[in-house]
Amino acid sequence: MPDLRPSSPEDTLNDFLISVERRAFKRAAYAVRDDDAALDIVQDAMIRLSQSYADRPETEWPMLFQRILSNAILDWFRRQKTRNAVFTNMGDLEARFSDEDGDFDLLAVFKMDDVGTESADTTASRAQTLAQIEEEINKLPARQREAFLLRYWEELDVAETAEVMGCSQGSVKTHCSRAVHALAQSLQSRGISL
Question: Whole-angstrom Cα distance, residue 53 to residue 57?
Fold first, then answer.
């Protein structure tokens, strides 16, 4: 028998957090390139939203959450910079991160309704192409990557992206344009046309 009780504000907030957690994790993972840190960042952002903004109208939650997530990512970088300044010289830090591969599953981004009907070769080719796209996204400068993911992954408009990133709409357009141009060039050089 279905539950006919009206949903509570806590249930509504939980449903919202469940709906954004996967994309938020991917966004954080792309930014920090560390799955464990990304999970911590997303959990912190969810806790901050729950503690400070649960009483706000639910229509405000998506923008608030994106802003909180952006701030949590920046906080993580600040903490890393402080730790690294104490324990690691910058040359070692750059070498360590430039060789690091991210283990992200971009297949989850694309709707794959017909996966069961495609051949194994097509599936393998698709996975290889997505891995190459992921590599190129990871090579983008941080602000370009953030703008690109907010606009084209999170599907925020220019004004919303500017608010989340704390910059002007013109800066968002510039970052997105440069990101798309760089991605198109790098993917074309790999023989991938989108």
Answer: 9
Type of residue at 189: S
Q: Which residues of 146-173 are buried (b: 16+ CB within 10 A; e: fewer)?
A: bbbbbbeebebebebbbbbbebeeebbe
Chunked into runs of 10 residues, the chain (194 residues) has average pLDDT values of 62 91 91 90 93 91 91 84 50 41 38 52 75 83 89 84 91 89 84 68
Distance (Å, whole) CA 191 – CA 194: 10
Where does residue 142 rank: exposed (0-12), middle (13-18), buried (19+ CB within 10 A)? middle
CATH of the domain at 138: 1.10.10.10
- 117, 189: one domain: yes
Query: pTM for the whole thing?
Result: 0.53
Residues 16 and 4 in one domain: yes
Contact (CB, 8 A) for 150 and 20: no
